[in-house]
Hints:
Strand content: 5-15%
Number of strands: 19
Helix content: 40-55%
Strand order of the largest sheet: 1-3-2-4-5
Structural class: alpha+beta
Number of helices: 25
Distance between the termini: 66 Å
Amino acid sequence: MTNRLARETSPYLLQHAHNPVDWYPWGEEAWAKSRAEDKPVFLSIGYSACHWCHVMERESFEDDATARVLNEHFVSIKVDREERPDLDSIYMQAVQMMTGHGGWPMSTFLTPQGKPFFAGTYFPPEDRHGMPAFRRVLEHVVNVYRTRRAEVDEASDEVARALGGSLRLSKDGQTITHDALDRAASRIAAGYDPVHGGFGSAPKFPPSMSLDFLMQVAYRGGDARLREIVVNTLTKMARGGMYDQIGGGFHRYSTDARWLVPHFEKMLYDNALLARLYTRAWQWTHDPLFARIANEILGYVAREMTSPDGGFYSTLDADSEGEEGKFYVWTRAEVLELLGGDEGRVFCALYDVTEGGNWEGHNILNVPRDPASVAADLGIELVQLDDIVARGKCKLYGAREQRVRPGRDEKILSGWNGWMLAAFAEAALAFDKNSYREIVLKNASYLLTRIVDGKLSRHAHIAGLLEDYSGVAWGLTLAYEATHERRFFDGARSLVEQMLARFRDEENGGFYDTPSDHEQLITRPKDLFDNATPAGTSVACEVLLRHALLFGEERYAQIATETLERMWPVVEKYASGFGFALGVAEWRATQPREIAITGDDDTSRVLTRVVGETFLPHRVLVAGRESADLPLMEQRPQERAMAYVCVGYACEEPTSDPERLRELLG
């Protein structure tokens, strides 16, 4: 027997389609029932790779007695937070206001008008560790709703007012200077863990956006301490167990301070941001480790997270066969059997594989020591170690493929795809890989099909949000730079105009997360923080600044600048929560390079390669015959390969010499 969720497309909702709970998807049918029967709504928000979401489903939503209580006294709505980040943003903020913390599964109780009056996250089936049993919570909520209705209405009105009051930006913008950005970098750096890298203690999330900002500041000012923070953190993360040493790609976060034990889910957005970060770090340092990690992440995505039509899937689950991490861990005996005694012992020495294991009797592969010192201890050359490791990784990958794989959420979310498209596009230029250009062409072409009558869809029937418009515009803009296909650029510009027309808050500044023609919610969300993912507003500002140079549209730069300056008081106060926005502010405070490459021959391709392998955190690139009408191509003959470099309204003498171009960019 199934419930209404059987008609949905989200894998997370479909996972609950056979629950005895009478689930509704978010929509008018559920709200009409709530109003008609004056029943409170139980809103449960989660996502398919969420471990505790699965636990609460097994313990409570599959339980007939719990389902009877929910079905009799509540209208139950299940939401996939990845499909509807607008709803997740509103109600997560409410949970945090009411409880002081948040997380998933999110469990919120609402009036028939959608206003929260009681909230929590995971509730166990029985009283446990100070947490009340879920059924006891349900009985309490029903009793309060029936007997103390005036208090419920008053409290829910207060929460709704508080949510609506969080939208305004500062009326008085503050000019963003390099001094102000240096202070923000210092505040982030103050939390640095010099032993293990990263910031703070456990748990540790990959701080991709903050590291990218620190890298930009270090590049500008030659700050050795910031460089050490970035390089050490990237190295420690790459050698830790949070990184999948066999298959590539990062898990969601580390449960400990030294990046050893991950929460094993893999998210597309994490790997998009990290692939781009490691690519840029390689351009900056030319450390081969960073190039390897960037390429392994992208190889993993191409191999395991790409649909036949070029879209990128959303997540891999943490669990397989009901156990978290089972797919990824090893015993020493397994490794020795697969690799043989001699090579197996070398492999185990590098990857910290012991008889007792480093996690629950098993081994999470990680590299706690520098490979050169391991090779020296073993009495072999580093090149021998590398050969043994390469063979061993192939054998272990093949053996792992025979295991039961974690579940894959095959939603293709437009915004997330835009971020990964940006990563592939930057890597295509940096590493000059045609295979990446082919992926860029296919994904960008696919995303263009999601723009119908000027409007972008997020997934299936769900309308695009700011995250989608800004993310896809960003990805398409960088796809143009990697392929010189003008249709991607024009598609990006159409999305920029949609952002300005349908998302911009002209009265209070910035951008709403939902378009002007979106369904009416209890408030119109405007999430400014760069949390696990960059805020739609931050990416919108990045795209606007790029397009201001590429199209000669000063209006775009003015809007982005005004938004950043009005955000600045809160950015300055909570710098670590605005990593992407700070990187965009660094762009605005710096003079970006404007690079145009003419011609279509081997010389022009070599010139493009020089641009791609050079660390230029603030630059735009136009090239190809389809770009002849762009402002940066004006008065520049297309017949001959030449590179034109301009900075701050002043241009260098054009050159066809790759080495001279390298000097101009250095």
